[in-house]
UniProtKB/TrEMBL annotation:
Protein name in the entry: Uncharacterized protein
Molecular functions (GO terms): RNA binding
Tree of life domain: Eukaryota
One Pfam family from the record: LSM12_LSM
Assigned protein family: Belongs to the LSM12 family.
Amino acid sequence: MADSSECFNIGSTVSCVTCFDEELQGEVLAFDSHVKLLTLKSPASSGRTSLCDIRMVNLSYVSQVTVLREAPVSSLPTLPSLNLTKLNSRAKRSIEEKQRLIQAMQSGVSPDGQKLFLTINKTLEEVTWKGVNILVMGQVLITPPYQSDNVREHKDGKEVSALQLNYIKKIVDKFHKDQQSMSMNNGTSATPVVEVQAVSQ
């Protein structure tokens, strides 16, 4: 077994001999002394230069470890900086959308309306709830019972083209066709829907 008190610097090149007398050699990508795990990167066994092999070596099953080349201290890669403003904005939008979805469910939106909302949201990002109505791109409103006949231009929004209106009607029609075929095939839905019961405080 290799000496558990040894520490390996990232970027160093090491050679390990396993308890099966197999020799592994590579660059240290990570080392966890608590679980005695060493992660090595070596040239691809397939011979392709664009690839590499990554091996996780349990040092409990290694009889010998030799450091072939120690990595210089300054060779540690710098981590990219995070755009915290962008991350906070994305988190805030996500929370607001989840809250609108919860409000819509609590205000009596049917399961079909919930499923349609999630289906449209997979294709188009600008989908929100306006009460029990689905508002798409701030221009198109889908009212209950959420059929293609219920797709119309939103009066308070920007002017919508006939092409956009027809596109959303096609999404709604396809959604209902898929729902019918699923109910005929197995009676289950591919999209999970949560029904919220009104709870008094």
